[in-house]
Amino acid sequence: MVLLLLSILFPMCFGVFVIGRRGGRVGALALGGIVISLMINISALLFARGGLSVYVGTFLFALALDSLPRMLMALAPVLFLLTFVFLLGAGKNDAKRARLFGFFFLTLGALNAVYASANLLTFYMFFEVVSLLSFPLVLHDGTERARRAALIYIGFSFTGTALVLGGMKLAGMEAIESFTAGGVALSEPHNQLAFLLLALGFGCKAGLYPLSAWMVPASNESPVSVGALLSGVVAVMGVLGIVRVSYQVFGAERLSGGWAQTVLISLACLTALMGAMLAYREPILKKRLAYSSISQLSYALIGFLTFTKLGFIGGVLQVFFHACAKSGLFFSAGAVQEQTGFLRVSEMKGIGRDMPLTMGCFALLSLSIVGLPPLGGFAALWELSRGAFVYGGALGSLCVAVMLLSALLSAGAFLPVAASAFFPGKDFFACVNGPRLVGWRVLIPILVLSAAVLVFGIFPGVFSGVGERLFATISGGMS
Amino acid sequence: MMKFLMPVAVLLPFFSAPLFALKRFRSIRALKALTYTVVLATSAMVLILCAAYDGQMLKLAHITNLLTIGLNVDGMSRVFGCVVSILWPITTLYAFDYMKEDHKKQRFFSFFVLSYGAAVGVAFAGNLITMYLFYELLTLATLPLVMHKMDDMARYAGKRYLLYSIGGASFGFIAVVFTANYGGANAAFSLEGVLDASLVAGHEQLLRTVFTLAFFGFGVKAAIMPLSGWLPTASVAPTPVTALLHAVAVVKAGAFACIRLTYYTFGTELLKGTFAQFIPMAAALFTIVYGSARALRTNHLKRRFAYSTVSNLSYILLGVTMMSATGLMASAQHIISHAFVKIALFFCVGAVLEKEHKEYLDEIEGIGRRMPVTFACFTAASLALIGMPPLPIFFSKWAIGESAIELATGWGYVSVAALLVSTVLTALYTLSIVTRAFFPLGNPQVAVQKRTETRSMTAAILLVTVMMVLLGLFSGTIHTTLARWLIGGAA
Amino acid sequence: MGAALSTGSALLFSEVSSAGGMLPWYQNIPFASIFLLMIAGIIMPLFRKGKRGFCLAMGVSLLVAALSAILLVKLSINGERFTYMMGHYPAPWGNEIAAGPLEALLALMFSLVEALSLLGGRKDAASDILEPKQSLFYLMMCELQAAMLALTYTNDIFTAYVFIEISTLAACSIVMARDTAKTIVATIRYLVISLLGSGLFLIGVVMLYCITGHLLIPQLGEKIAGLVATGTYTEPLTIVAGLLFIGVAIKCALFPFYAWLPFAHGGATTSSSAVLSGLVLKGYIILLVKLFYEVFTIELIRSLKVTNIMFVFGIAGMLVGSWRAIGEEHIKRMLAYSSVAQIGYVFMGIGLGTNLGVAAAFYQILVHAVTKPLLFISAGRLIRVQGHEKSLYRLRGSARNDPLAGVLFTLGALSMVGIPLLAGFVVKFSLASASLLNPNRMWIALIALAVSTVLNALYYVPAVIAVWTPSGFMQRKKQPPDWMFGVSGAVLGALVVFLGLGCIGVIGVIQNGLSLWL
Lengths: 479, 491, 518
Prior knowledge:
A: mainly alpha, 2 domains, two-stranded antiparallel sheet, C: two-stranded antiparallel ribbon
């Protein structure tokens, strides 16, 4: 229990401490802090036992770590670490940097609290806290547009939260008091309605249509580090919420086949397709990445919402690989932006000559997004499709079709970018400057992430195993 | 013996108020001493009565054979009494700092104290006619406070306030007449209603119409649409007035009066399930959403929170219109939660107004650096207002939502939806202020800026914020206490 | 005048009673009251100094008040109503006085309030009226009071007309006593309109005499009951009722006949305004109600729909009077418009068509008779301390120079607005409760009461705020305290509170008295 509390409190206190710092050495401080956080998290996920519960009135708030979020507890700090390394290389070294690092830490602490939430009520509370703490991250650049984007972000967050609250009220006290495998029974149609509200509410964070409009402005107006985080970690929190709600509040068996499930899967399909289409057409790179995130996250949602083992495994794989790939892509975009100031895709012609490693990784990661073997994205896509077929019916086949179509569109969105970076065509004037000096600090995260995608893509067994075990635990023996 | 403490608690402020007018105080210290003495003494008496009184009505006077003026302390009195008696002294602390530059302090504090007496009178009124008396006195006592600045805006605000309040009260008067003639203005407020069943029979529709009119009449003070126009205009008053009276005392007195009217006079049996329930409910629902929406569109800080108050009061009224025990407890809980949260918010806004002379949203870029404690408390209070657990309004909103779902009709779901929409809007209109305060556009200055906060005001702000947080953490205790007070036992 | 003297020349303290044996001494009080006042009036020109005239007028008024109080007590105990023959001429050819507890109460009201108004307004009278004319002023006051008492007590319709005329002339004189161009114009207007009213009343009386051949009220009542039973003369009776009603309505400023009132009452000296608003208007109403109850029977009146007209005009008066008051800057004219509204309350009460409504209307008569003079004399004092400024704008801060006047003015204003514990609230409550019995009229009456409360607040509260707000118009030189005003105001204020609090007894007397009329 102490470890849990430490995992929450240490980053938060450290974050407050960092915010007030001025002067140099902030970067080093931040790195040190994140390493410590990582170690705490890993110890927590390995050794944490027991939990903490507090009654406020008739409401029970509880913290405890069950098996579901353990993977995320490891993944999140690693991503943060890589992000910090990137920032040290590419971020602007101005007075606001301390604030940026500080809120990153605060967000991490809150995320740990979300992972450690032992019931829906606590989950909801810390979910809101994460939204609030990540809000200044979106604001960071301090422009009028950043402010607007941040307010849109918070507006959607709270809309999502409101839906969750509505669902919670409908579900009633017992439902929100504990996560039990197998879940809670309610009268129809309250069951379905509550589930729908809860899933839509959490889905807002995961970019589910129609509540996905926040992701693109938020990713675009904020620094790339924040964008990476939003797509990779914060959105995953929404996915986690949906998983928790389906399996541990209501019980997948009960929900399977209900109209809520159908509605949600349809929405996820729609989102996947829409996201990919909009990505295809989007001229600004960061926005293109954001649309792609919306689409990719919906793959994971489809997987989890089929309530099948294979779908679940696929979802877990997708979450991991997408987080890695998208973060890497954001970092690459950030590197390009830092070196050249280019924001638009069309401006990236020929840049491969000057930044070969960066663009090489960009290409690799894009291929993962598209789902080409032997990269990670393929493994995920494979399991997801299998899961969709198990789910069956017209909708199942539709899901597969949608995923394939989106893959195609993603290909169209990213591959030409990579291609034109290296093969700009005859009419391109070579840039005078020559090879760019992309700092090693910028390169390392990108390389690490690409390696992860490649290696674990070839050997996805680790994660599928994790997925299988998780499914067994939380679904109480469904197939 | 304790019976007689009630009139003393009510009358002490009334009789002290002229003292402010008669003596010309030479130093501010003497004025402070007198004010604090009266306010604290009254608060102490009120709290003692709330804690220890057993509930026999004390009859003071008979007006005609149908009406009796009497005081009593029952569960609802305790709720309102505790809120005003705790918040009035804190506001006095804040007010003395705020009014430092003002030349008309004596007049201000004289009516300030007088309003306290009227508020206590409303709380301790034992029946409808007594409540009506103190309700009217409250309007008259607070009118000079609204008009304090005596410029054109203040006069206009005062006139509007007067028109709306007296107008509303005169429809409440109709209820007084009917209650007296249909069986029981003499009887003390009782939870089953006070009307004589044999007289009521056959006249139900009539009484329901009267109830609806009176609900809107008393609801004027509780800013129900479409009669809420006076509240935003009244925010030209000095902030202690806006904070205390228009976020706490006056408006809560309106909600309190509606509660008394519904549960303790007409009785929910007569009203439940009829248009008398649904028309007020519809108005409350509309107000909840409209108030929040207007708040979002208003750039003037105080008026923004005035609209926020309009919206939040209708949360309470929504709970009232649920006409169930859960609804009653939920509205009482929201009265308490919202009072503390809103007063904290207004204190902060007032500090900005008074120390930095800034009124509008776009003027407060980066002010968080100069008033860090104030805005930290502001942020906490904003989060509370939005309804984040474990801060108090989460619990009261949940309770209202629960009572709505108990209703098990479409109205229940619409109510929950309205609450949720309002939550989102609240988030937007409070966090946009927090954003501007702490995250100004462009690059913030590295140099340390001079703090403009002052001690007394900040102390008051901190005090209410801490209390607000404690209220949230101890909401369990609050819940059980309310159950004991209002329904006499387990909830 | 001559008729009055002729009846007054009959023996005082007649010892013949209709039942044989000694007449109880208190039964002489009504006649004595009227007679004393008239005598006082007659002697008045002997006094050169106004002060002496004032003392005489005050003294006689207080004496009459005391006598009326005694009468009230005696009659209430027994619940009796007696008739008193004037001279030895029995009915139906002689003249009669009828007195019950209600009449005694009203007489008490008239005389007490008159005394207090004279007291409170003395300083103003002393400065407004030329010295040689002051005793004449007090003469007119005495005659006016006598006429009011006569209207209350009389049992003869022609005597009523005579005293109506007397009161009209006296009232005009007291308006005109303050010698300015405006008041003279106002007086002439008042006179013309009033005489029109009296004229209509006279035509009604003549027609009634032609139809029935009687002038004494009980006999008239019998005769008319007989006519109604046979169904003859229905139209003429309607016309008579209408004429009597309109005649009185004109004289007491019921909507739409109110235009003369603000200028007459607003321009006169303080005592005059108080008496005019508080008392004179009421006397006619009392007479009218008495006629309706005893001559026509109230059921007949209701069936002739006269009460409907009263109701409608009453409500119109309530609303229009207050509406006009809102914009009015001149404080006394504002109070005069308020009187128009308050008279509207009375007629609305009668127009409700229930006995409870009539009782409420009478209660309003009492309350207004006490409150309006209070307001007028306080206003008079405030005007005086502010250097004779009359507009509300320039009266700002006047209460600071004389807090007692300010407090009393506030008290009167709050009563008008209808704050519980004060008299005005009881009136509103009684009227509202009475309206519950008549479902047709209930909602209109309730809404009208609600709206008029708001309208009242809209001009009284700003006026109160104005007099207490310090301003540059405050006079530096303080006026010496006016004990006469103080005493008078305090008593009137106490009455306002008394009528607001412990009025169960008073309402009981009214209802008792009314029941004796039926």
